[in-house]
Amino acid sequence: MDVMTGTLVEWAMAIRQGDVSSLDVVARHLEQIAAHNVNGMGIRAVIEVNPEALLEAEARDRERRNGFLRGPLHGVPILVKDNLDTADAMQTTAGSVALEGHRAREDAEVVRRLRAAGAVIVGKANLTEWANFLSDHMPNGYSSRGGQTLNPYGPGRFDVGGSSSGSGAGVAAGFAPAAIGTETSGSILSPSSANSLVGLKPTLGMVSRRGIIPIAMSQDTAGPMTRTVADAALLMSVIAGPDPRDVATQGVRWPSREAWLDLGRGALKGARIGVPQAYLEEVPEDERRVFNEALSELRELGADVIECDLPKRDFDFDVLVAEFPAALDRYLATVEPWLPVHSLADVMVFNARNADRALRYGQAIFERAQAQSHLHLADGSYVRARLRDLRESREEGIDRALAEHRLDAIAFVNYYGCAIAAKAGYPSITVPAGYTPEGKPVGLTLTGTAYSDVRLCQLAHDYEQATKHRRPPAM
């Protein structure tokens, strides 16, 4: 195994069986970061390396030699996006210089679960600053603190995707076998498909949001970004679960760990996959050809692929803009008292005073959110907008299409269907489907109804194992 091709499942098994030490595995990935993050290809996927990663790896090795394994990720290196709190020597900044020096006092629940399963958090991944909610024209992968993340399949040529840009580019570039990204609308699916990865955007509430710098309480979620569906399912078996401090997780139907890992084969035989033609209109021709080939492959695997009616709606930002100020202010109220920012208004003032560093692309979305911060749950316009989003994305959208055509899932190219699934809070998984003649990765994305996460994994796994499209970038 090497850092470019080894999967999470393979590294975890090798460490568990004593074929390789956690120290060796973590060191190899740190060497790859040193070779190509700032140096070499200059991917800039990692905004900060954990200075205690090697010490943590040695601790996991001692535990294993003493007959103790923490869990299924024992000793394996993982990257987490720089909007997840880590209670260690690393900062949590959402890529913003305004939060430089912020070190969380408590792990995000996702991070806590990763550590409990034995993972070594090897570093924090760069992101489109503030998870792409600062500027209306910021390039994917840029942050004032981390610089510009590049796509290792075509640095400077192909879009890296966002906002979980560093999570995607980092796994593709061999900086870690897996990463955690977050999504409000497209931020896992976009960089996963752009970097030839598997990315799962879970049903809202399947994964705790606590300890994640927020955008919108109604759509935010974390999820896995990996090289295989089995790796994504393994991560979900660890990070999914209840959190009494996150109301979104209450009453959720969580699959068992065994259900996540029971991917099997043959899930596509007899499955009904819908293809909404309206979502193909803006897809470039070379990517559409790859997608059409993927549909043919689905048919060859026994799926019934049919056209389905799913209206392509232009969802607005009203709900996100309304929820953002309160969500961010709540988070910033917990940061160190000596930091200069404790509210959205504080961040905007800091940015204006440090415009040469902080505002290369402006802060138009922040300005809109602050101007409309009077919107709240007592304001009828917010409630109407939220209920409209739910109705159009669920009853009149995904659920109607699934029911009318008796579908198991709806297929999209890359992240083109991300908005409707995000508004609904429904799951989507993207899996490598091939490459354009220029070498640009293309993903096949499957979307389902609430809590169909495991079913989507099974369908995607069947396609992945039969086609084996993914290949690592030339580093």
From TrEMBL:
Q: Name one Pfam family in it.
A: Amidase
The family database entries (InterPro entries) matched by this protein are listed as: Amidase_dom (IPR023631), AS_sf (IPR036928)
Annotated Amidase domain residues: 44-411
The source's superkingdom equals: Bacteria
Cross-referenced Gene3D superfamilies, in alphabetical order?
Amidase signature (AS) domain (3.90.1300.10)
Q: Which residues form a coiled coil?
A: none
Protein name according to UniProt:
Amidase
Q: Which organism is it from?
A: Alicyclobacillus acidocaldarius subsp. acidocaldarius (strain ATCC 27009 / DSM 446 / BCRC 14685 / JCM 5260 / KCTC 1825 / NBRC 15652 / NCIMB 11725 / NRRL B-14509 / 104-IA) (Bacillus acidocaldarius)
